[in-house]
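We treat protein structure as text, and this decision shapes the records that our systems exchange. Such a record has a labelled line for the sequence and another for the backbone structure tokens. The record that follows is passed on verbatim for readers who wish to inspect the format:
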Amino acid sequence: MHEYLEASVLAGIPHGFSTERELDLAAILPGAELVRVKQVHGSRVVVANSETSLAVEADGIVSDRPGLLLGIVTADCAPVLLADSAAGVIGAAHAGWRGAVGGVLENTLEAMVSLGARLANIRAAIGPTIAQHSYEVDDAFRTAFTEKDERFFATGRSGHWQFDLPAYVAHRLDAAGLAQVEDLAQDTYAQPDRFHSFRRATHRGEKTDGRQLSVIGLPA
């Protein structure tokens, strides 16, 4: 049985966020070609073309070509799918904390605009991501952020904090000029029967290779 999640903010755009179950791409965009890149927790964004493959290192993909499904994989980081349906431009970003701090979201938006999208028209959805109460970090992690980011950290046990990654991602998108951002609010760590979680698997001493696939496309 295939199961995937959709975001109301992306209604009318073929897209889906997988659970731990395999994603049926044909159910989302029949006949589409899946385009993925080698994700490296960076901020590089590429425009999908015939040369785009897993040999290309990037953490964001954009396109204005019908018949493609842009795909990213995650297992706690934030998968972000974006679309300007009026311009026919889509994007997908892998936003872990490093990528988000480094500007992968802003770079994805800039690449979409270069293809004809308008910031005011771009809608974005944040898929299954580790939630604040599941994401303990230490003081060293906290120093990677500015004092202006204090609101994304809740006090935890001594020398530790609870970081709100989806809220931080939404903040970066809002600050970049997007008016329509939806967080599906699905905690990958806290739902072992539904989602893969790198951190949960690490804590349990289990295999850490499970990933969710998130895709978005334009009809041919």
